[in-house]
């Protein structure tokens, strides 16, 4: 097992290198650069020499290979440098945002698991009953409904509802407060986007749980367990659910990694200062150093989550123990 | 006599230049101390250095930390000619030596937040950086001060600006709200220090910046205007999405947004909150320009270019677009509220502004035919991926040109690729461009229309020495009547005779805010009147 983990960790290196080549090349295909945007972006006057100096300071006038080498050398030393747009260290720019994105991802995942696993299981056990139809309708609605749209509805609903019932419109806070500073304020902000994203997330996981459970419930070992006279609850919990969890964990893992950097529109709807928003801004501002750092961070998260999922596989199913 | 007439004209224009809202009521009330003003800002600034940046996203959260030499009168911000001292003493000085010498006395009670006293040497170092930056150092407003020969500080309380020639553009250029006074010692040590740090002498002391989230400030107890600021502090919250900013005001997470909302958002807020919302409106010193690519056929032909502007119904557009977009006022190359702007009668003499639309479009069709413009071809309109008002005005233009048989495709890009297309690639036939200024300073603002080898921000690829000559003459006379005469000639050449570039509609600023925000008055620019020392909360 340890050898397997080590092998997987080593395999991350070429994957990260490939991602680095890709992001470096793609970014430079976007017309314009951050200097031009800063100087011309508001229509103000500037001369060519100012542009040249800015490019020199940013290092974007150097040959592409030299720029790439600096980028790779930075990754090796875990030094992502400074944002080309704000001039601030990238690590400090990302720190609070990472914390927020991670918190949303965790809460949304909890919402998804708490909703999806019981609903998917009930839906499978009560197949083709009104309960199953209802769960399926709810989960299909969740898949069909974009999270950001649900987010807009939630905010409008809160504003209109509170104005109607309390006389004063209320909406979630629009600035982030860490949970250890003010837990209530933190939750008042986090819970709504977590519901908006968690609903879609749970819908996918519910569908997956249901189909996996249906498959497992038809397995011979479940029939054998029933023939032995085991309680139905025990059969479902110990024999069926554990085995049905494999594909569900894969979905949960992928969705979790996606939530860290992919909540671009939902973050804007709730004014969450997360990594998704930063991603869009850095691409829009041609901030190469920040975009590169973000891509590498997200790639690393995906790789680690995948590794974790594989380890969980082995824990859940002894047949998949790797040597 | 001429002077009196011009002053009277200024007063009338200033009065008419709108400033609806509660501004009158606010002055009658007694300000209350305390409270934190929370407001939303649509963007985050790239750096903190006002001398190199040009975006309002820097002004809104950072201007309250700094003081300036002179500023637009915060009690009369809709005036285009009313300036007052900030760190100078008394009134804004009159020029001496035939209009070429300005001597400013500096207050001796101004302190930087780091504790050092501000002297004339700091003001001198600031203006040296802005006007005569070291080789290679950027300065966004260096060109505004082309009339300045030297700046000196004979003692710690006096700053002297010597001009090469008398210029009406000098005082407005000094009042630009980006001209923050920096400490000489810090600049001497590192000229880039202010790009990443804040240390001003304004009404508020920098407290915290949370990257991407907000910038906050707290009251400076040693602020040189006694009793100010009224607020205990402020929090400028960055919120990109317009609907979120509107909802934030509705849900009282923010009290105001200082840039401007479209009419629909104003109506929604008023409908939801009634008298808890106060609306202030003003003409806006921003305009979308149609930049025609003179290097591309058939637009190298003045007839084809004139047809483009003749096809556009500005008077009708003003009426209908102003219901959905932040544009409204029909104007020429000068901000409509300025004494140097064309009157309606003068505008109606220019191609594209004729009152008879049918005649205008018939003439456009004739010119297109005469110039041999291929009407079966689809032309390229370069536009920026910003709804308000770029995409709305762009879509409107497509329809206007269609009326005379011209087909355009609108290519919409995010800001980076949009500017790369506008400035470098130049594949377009027509591109949207904009001119957005702070202090209304027409003599400098219209520099966008002079030849591209002289103006750093003219992307039309043309040289027009007649226009350049008029621009120079206008800038070298202190006589407002003469300035106005040259301005009309320059406008006629630019928009009509030579048809170099075109104005669409001037923007219209709408600020719906929580009624408990008092003391703030709308101005013709979202860059102005943002020191916040005069703002208070009626709570």
- SS-based class of chain B: alpha+beta
Supply the CATH architecture of the largest domain in chain A.
Orthogonal Bundle
Which second-level CATH architecture of the largest domain in chain B applies?
A: 3-Layer(aba) Sandwich
Which percent range fits the helix content of chain A? over 70%
Pick out the low-confidence regions of chain B. Answer: 1-27
Characterize the main sheet of chain B.
6 strands, mixed
Structural class from helices and strands of chain A?
A: mainly alpha
Indicate the overall shape of chain B: globular
| CATH topology (level 3) name of the largest domain in chain B | D-Maltodextrin-Binding Protein, domain 2
Name the shape of chain A in a single word.
globular
Number of helices of chain A: 13
How many domain regions of chain A?
Answer: 2
pLDDT averaged residue by residue of chain A: 88
What is the C-level CATH assignment of the largest domain in chain A? Mainly Alpha
- What is the total tally of β strands of chain A? 0
Briefly note the CATH topology name of the largest domain in chain A: MetI-like fold
What is the oligomeric state here?
A: heterodimer
Task: Report the major sheet of chain A.
Answer: none
Unreliably modeled segments of chain A: none
Describe what you observe in this structure.
Chain A is an all-alpha fold. Chain A has 13 helices and no strands. In chain A, helix 1 (2-29) runs antiparallel to helix 13 and helix 9 packs antiparallel against helix 10. Chain A is globular, with a radius of gyration of 24 Å. Chain B is built from 18 helices and 18 strands. Chain B has a six-stranded mixed sheet. In chain B, helix 14 links the parallel strand 13 (378-384) and strand 14 (407-413). In chain B, helix 8 (242-250) runs parallel beside helix 9 and helix 17 (465-475) packs antiparallel against helix 18 (480-497). The longest helix of chain B has 18 residues, at 480-497. The model of chain B is unreliable at 1-27 (pLDDT under 50). Chains A and B meet through helix 2, helix 3, helix 5, helix 7 and helix 12 of A and strand 9, helix 8, helix 15 and strand 15 of B.
């Amino acid at each position: 097992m340890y050898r397997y983990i080590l092998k997987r960790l080593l395999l991350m290196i070429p994957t990260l290198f490939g991602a680095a080549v890709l992001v470096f090349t793609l970014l430079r295909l976007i017309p314009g650069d951050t200097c031009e945007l800063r100087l011309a972006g508001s229509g103000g006057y500037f001369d060519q020499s100012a542009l040249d100096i800015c490019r020199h300071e940013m290092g974007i006038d150097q040959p592409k290979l030299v720029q790439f080498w600096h980028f790779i050398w930075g990754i090796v030393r875990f030094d992502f440098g400074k944002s080309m747009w704000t001039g601030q260290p990238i690590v400090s720019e990302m720190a609070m945002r990472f914390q927020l994105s991670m918190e949303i991802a965790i809460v949304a995942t909890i919402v998804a698991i708490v909703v999806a696993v019981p609903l998917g299981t009930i839906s499978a056990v009560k197949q083709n009953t009104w309960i199953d139809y209802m769960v399926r309708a709810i989960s299909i609605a969740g898949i069909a409904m974009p999270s950001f749209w649900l987010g807009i509805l939630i905010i409008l609903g809160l504003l209109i509802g509170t104005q109607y019932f309390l006389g004063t419109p209320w909406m979630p806070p629009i600035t982030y407060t860490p949970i250890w500073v003010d837990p209530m304020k933190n939750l008042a902000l986090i819970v709504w986007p977590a519901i908006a994203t968690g609903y879609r997330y749970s819908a996918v996981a519910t569908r997956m749980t249901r189909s996996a459970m249906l498959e497992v419930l038809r397995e011979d070992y479940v029939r054998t367990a029933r023939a032995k006279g085991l309680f139905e609850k025990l059969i479902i919990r110990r024999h069926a659910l554990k085995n049905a969890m494999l594909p569900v964990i894969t979905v949960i893992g992928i969705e979790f990694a996606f939530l860290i950097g992919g909540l671009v529109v939902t973050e804007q709807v709730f004014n969450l200062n997360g990594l998704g928003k930063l991603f869009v801004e850095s691409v829009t501002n041609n901030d190469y150093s920040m975009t590169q750092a973000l891509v590498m961070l997200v790639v690393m998260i995906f790789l680690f989550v995948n590794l974790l999922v594989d380890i969980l596989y082995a824990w859940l199913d002894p047949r998949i123990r790797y040597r | 006599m001429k002077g009196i007439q011009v002053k009277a004209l200024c007063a009338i224009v200033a009065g008419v230049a709108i400033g609806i809202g509660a501004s009158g009521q606010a002055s009658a009330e007694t300000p209350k101390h305390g409270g934190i003003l929370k407001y939303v800002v649509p963007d985050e600034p790239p750096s903190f250095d006002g001398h190199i940046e040009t975006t309002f996203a820097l002004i809104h959260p950072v201007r309250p930390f700094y003081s300036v030499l002179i500023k637009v009168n915060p009690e009369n911000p809709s005036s285009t000619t009313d300036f007052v001292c900030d760190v100078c003493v008394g009134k804004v000085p009159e020029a001496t030596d035939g209009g070429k010498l300005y001597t400013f006395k500096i207050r001796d009670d101004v302190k930087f937040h780091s504790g050092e006293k501000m002297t004339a040497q700091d003001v001198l170092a600031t203006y040296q950086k802005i006007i005569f930056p070291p080789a290679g150092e950027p300065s966004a407003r260096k060109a505004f001060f082309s009339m300045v020969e030297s700046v000196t500080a004979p003692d710690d309380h006096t700053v002297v600006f010597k001009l090469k020639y008398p210029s009406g553009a000098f005082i407005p250029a000094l009042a630009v709200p980006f001209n923050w006074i920096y400490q000489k010692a810090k600049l001497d040590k590192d000229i880039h220090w202010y790009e990443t740090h804040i240390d001003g002498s304004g009404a508020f002391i920098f407290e915290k910046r949370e990257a991407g989230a907000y910038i906050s400030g707290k009251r400076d107890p040693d602020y040189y205007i006694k009793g100010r600021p009224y607020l205990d502090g402020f929090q400028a919250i960055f919120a990109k999405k317009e609907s979120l900013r509107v909802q934030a005001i509705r849900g009282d997470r923010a009290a105001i947004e200082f840039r401007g909302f479209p009419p629909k958002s104003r109506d929604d807020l008023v409908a939801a909150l009634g008298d808890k919302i106060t609306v202030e409106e003003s003409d806006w010193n921003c305009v979308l320009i149609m930049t025609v690519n003179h290097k591309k056929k058939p637009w190298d032909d003045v007839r084809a270019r004139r047809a483009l502007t003749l096809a556009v119904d500005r008077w009708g557009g003003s009426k209908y677009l102003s219901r959905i977009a932040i544009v409204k006022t029909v104007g020429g190359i000068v901000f409509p509220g300025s004494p140097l702007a064309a009157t309606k009668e003068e505008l109606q003499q220019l191609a594209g502004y004729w009152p008879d639309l049918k005649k205008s479009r018939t003439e456009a069709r004739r010119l297109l035919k005469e110039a041999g413009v291929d009407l079966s071809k689809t032309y390229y309109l370069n536009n920026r991926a910003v709804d308000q008002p770029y995409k709305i005005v762009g879509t409107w233009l497509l329809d206007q040109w269609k009326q005379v048989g011209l087909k355009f495709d609108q290519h919409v890009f995010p800001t980076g690729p949009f500017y790369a297309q506008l400035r470098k690639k130049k594949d377009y036939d027509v591109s949207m461009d904009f001119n957005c200024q702070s202090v209304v300073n027409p003599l400098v603002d219209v520099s966008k229309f002079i030849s591209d080898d002289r103006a750093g921000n003219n992307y039309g690829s043309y040289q027009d020495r007649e226009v350049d000559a008029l621009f120079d003459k206008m800038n070298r006379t202190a006589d407002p009547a003469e300035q106005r005469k040259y301005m009309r000639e320059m406008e006629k050449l630019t928009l009509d005779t030579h048809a170099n570039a075109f104005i669409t509609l001037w923007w219209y600023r709408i600020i719906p805010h929580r009624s408990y925000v008092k003391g703030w008055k709308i101005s013709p620019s979202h860059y102005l009147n943002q020191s916040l020392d005069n703002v208070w909360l009626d709570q």
